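Before a computer can learn anything about folding, someone has to put a protein's shape into writing. The three-dimensional part falls to structure tokens, numbers that each stand for a local backbone shape. The protein below has been through that process, and both of its lines are reproduced in full.
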Amino acid sequence: MSERELGHALDTFEMEAQTSILSNVGLYSHGTALLAYIMLAILAFISRRNSPVGVSLLYATLLTALWAGTVTLSNLLPEPLLRSMQVAEVARNAAWAFVLLRLVGTRYEGTDHIIATNRWIPWYAITVVVLVTVLLGIGPLAERTTQVYDISSYVTFGLWLVMAIGCLLALEQYFRNSKESELWSTKHMCIALGIIFAFDVFMYAQALLYRNLDRELWQARGIVVAMAALLIAISVSRAERRDPGRDSPRSVHLSRHVAFHSLTLMASGIYLITMALAAYFIRYLGGNWSGVLQIVFLTAAGLILVVLLFSGRIRSSVRVWLSKNFFSYKYDYRMEWLQFTRLLAESERDVPTGITRAVANLAKSPAGLLWSRAEDGRFGLVAHWEMPHPGNDIDLGTLPAWLERREWIIDVREWRRSPDVYQNLELPTAVLDINRAWLIIPLLSGQKLQGILLLREPDIIADLNWEDRDLLKVAGRQAASHLAQFQADQALVESRQFEAFNRLSAYVIHDLKNILAQLSLTVSNAEKHKENPAFIDDMVATVDNAVQRMTSLMAQLRNDEGAVGQQQFELSSLLKEAVSDSQVREPCPDLTCSQSGFTLNCDRERLLAVFGHLINNAQDATDNNGRVEVRLKENDGSALIEIEDTGIGMDEDFIRQRLFKPFDSTKGLTGMGIGAFESRDFIR
């Protein structure tokens, strides 16, 4: 549309308001929008750091305020600021489209998709510049060329219409691919932008039909945009309390249904054109109430369109219809498998619930239950996703055995109609009593039934065909492997806990065995030497040593750091005590300290037990006539302790493969195979 033509349309509005400025509806309409977006810009500035698109949102509100201010000023001037209004409106639309694209980009973070990077921004800027150039250039060109003048209005209104539709498409992409937790803080802004651009689509579509802007629509536009500011303010305020993507991992949702969106867009266009024609006849036949009736009718039509577009039932019906009539296969298997794998990977904390959710998503089911095989072969409920808990006492009867043998998916609705299809299988009454029970899917790992999944009926139920069953069978096997891995991990954790407990028990028994051997030797010598005062003193010292070691052992079991901890002592005195404790056995060890003064800071009792064990091992491997020598030396400033015996020794294979292996002993029933392992573990 040329400047002359657009100016004529706007001048008509102005001349009607020249008698009194109070009657200028457009002035107050867009003035209200100006004030609303100034306040919204202040709020956006305060909370800009709480949203991933906070800065972009701030610029969008400022440019919308600039647009409203330009239109308001044009209502006060004798000549409207046509070029300024065009530039301001392009900037406003481009800014909001940029916000929507940035929001869509957050859904693709971590991928190499162009929308997740900044590579698209230069192309976007070039597109906006081209639009501004065309809109500003076609007017002067039309003034000089008659042929251009004839098509200028179509080009101008067509460009405005395309911009509004493009913004609606970006909005639909973000809204459809967002989770409910993310829409908590952005859905009001989505509704607001939908109102703004849907109003623009209708206004410019009507202008394209009649080559002229409608006066009432133009004047009401400011109020519509101002009302949308209230909804945007709700989203901005919610962003202060919660980042839309903070509570859930950002993931990629890819869409395969290009035909679905094309059909939606085409149907919306046909609907809007039909409503515009109906509104025209209402205006033509309505008399004095024509303008009011037309606006009320179009508003109601717009509300109906919004409800239809966001109806899950309608969208599901359209998808089913498209799949039946336009596609060779019902599923985009790459897309479905990527999404299925992603949902399984997201279920680290609650694997059974994640499995239920992933398989239910494939079947477009809103809820499900999962039973898993226990160690005793029985099946117990392990997950109830979006469904009430049916109780743990459900007896599945012969169902698990039948599913494991037949590997069939059971459609409960079909079973009710024709039980002979499933060989007159008797389904458990408790399962049939579950509200809206739909599919029973076996989760098979190899030939073993790992779990049973029950899905609830979706809002739109399509008849199951071979493609549905094959996909769910493959998904069931993948889910069974995932469930089996989870159960194996749980069993491994339990076995490691028992292993740690058994190792602790072995340490305790080993220490008790040594203490018992020391006390047994003392008791066996009591009959012979009980009249000897020196023996009595030695026996008391032995019992006292046993009590101290038992006390230390109990403190270690309690992890009592106050009773057992590091202490400073002299190494040679510790070796003398270890050798002295071993004198009750043959051959008696000899101690040679060529260097003294080595001070250690560690658990003295545990180190004493280590040296005692090594000396006892040397005694066990040596005849009574043999020799066991303990030597303390200095080696480059460090203490070197040698324990040498004249016993049978160990070969290289034994040292390399068995010496420090726990629970492996050459002493038969008298050995635990833990002493050497514990000694090396403490010394390290």
